[in-house]
Amino acid sequence: MLNNINAHVRRYYLSFRLILIPFIGVYAIFLIASKTFGEQSIWTQALIPALITAAISWRNSVVLENRSFVMSENSRAKEYITQSIDDLFNELDNKLHDRNFLKNLEQYLADKVTLLELRIEHIKKRTTVQLLAPSTLMKLRELPIDMANKDNYQSLLNNLRFEILEELEKSYSKFFDEENLK
Amino acid sequence: MEYQGRDMTQKQKKIVIVRDFSVKPYGRYTSEVAPGEEDTTGENFRKTILAPALKEYAKVHVDLTGYNRYGPSFIDEAFGGLISSKEFSPDEVYGKLTYQHDLLPSIVALIKDRIDTAASYYNEDNSAQQH
Question: How far apart (Å, rounded) are the C-alpha atoms in residues A25 and A87?
């Protein structure tokens, strides 16, 4: 029951915020204006409702534009990070059998994960969403080095890859839910 | 750079790695790295800068900002090595040492993890010796 109510609130929150609340506001101001200037005054009949309606329309368009900007930026960033993680694991999968590469693995991971983390921190500043936790990035910095020396490194790497991608998707879903309530 | 903290009775030391040690810290042991890079290792940082500072000062703060490509082996040797070399107890390290990296929280998480891991080995060793 509570879940049902919660889902309905989430679904209609934006309509409520952009349509119902302004409507109640306009009606309240109309009543105040009619008491102050009289029902037949031009202020009550035209000027005040027109000014308020224009202000509300402008505010609503700003809210919607900002919302869609944040959504699309975040979506693009998530796609970029997903792709980067996939590329990183594909490269590791192809190169880990090469002994020369193993010598440089630590630096390779440090370079790649640092770029990824800087991007994630940048997104966090713009949209307040933390797509991957520092503890996950820490794992990505060091676990492949431990895995590289094991016989089943491919399956271990695969598990790590999907663990990280799963966390990314969960963080994105959480952001989406929170954005719906703003 | 040395500064006095809020508690004026306790001397504090701030170490900025790129200023006080190397602009490109790299590697674990001095004996393992390529010629010319001996001064940049975690072992060298611990022995020449961090451990002496921890012995001399009540609080030591390490600022890692300025370089972003730290490898786990440098971090492990520089910070976890304080405990695994038995030079300091976990309580001393937890009580005296603080660290920061302004851009990369995962580096801070990595340092904490390395210190926690070294501390757990230290405690296991100690309890094994007592039995």
Answer: 52
pLDDT in tens, B83-113: 999 999 999 999 999 999 999 999 999 999 9
Q: How many CA atoms lie within 13 A of A179 on its CB side?
A: 21
Find, among A85, A118, A106, the residue nearest to B76 by Cα: A106
Q: For residue B36, what is the enclosing H or E element?
A: none
Best of A106, A120, A131 to disrupt the B interface (most B CBs within 10 Å) is: A106
C-alpha–C-alpha distance, residues B83 and A89, integer Å: 33
CB contact under 8 A, B103 and A110: no
Three-class SS of residue B58? coil
Tell me the pTM.
Answer: 0.78
Token readout for A68 is: 């869609």
CA separation for the pair A28, A17 (Å, rounded): 16
